[in-house]
Amino acid sequence: MSTLHTKTKLRTGDEVVVIAGRDVGKRGTIQKILKNNRALVTGVNIVKKHTKPNPQMGITGGIVEQESAINISNIAIWNPKKKKADRVGFSVDGKDKVRIFKSDKAKI
What we know:
There is one protein chain. The chain has a single domain, classed as SH3 type barrels (Roll), CATH 2.30.30. It starts with 14 loop residues before the first strand and ends in a 7-residue tail after the last strand. By secondary structure, it is an all-beta fold. The strands form 3 sheets. A 6-stranded antiparallel β-sheet has the order 6-3-2-1-7-8, with no helix packed on it.
């Protein structure tokens, strides 16, 4: 039984780096967070998909390269100041709860 990330520390638009798997070291931005602890990241986990032609929709058949989902545990947020992967923490600033980098306590 998998747990669902309801309060995920990673959000759409965050720049992340892959820390495990065949694409280790690659960076990209999160396009979409999926419900089963997975995320679509630009330029990461590229797979080849065989598509059938559909003339009514104007789709030509062939082999198409596209991004596939990657597990959230295999990516970490990119800290541009430190130029390395970092972890996300939370800080209460007045009434606002903001995300911070764990290494230097800077706001994301």
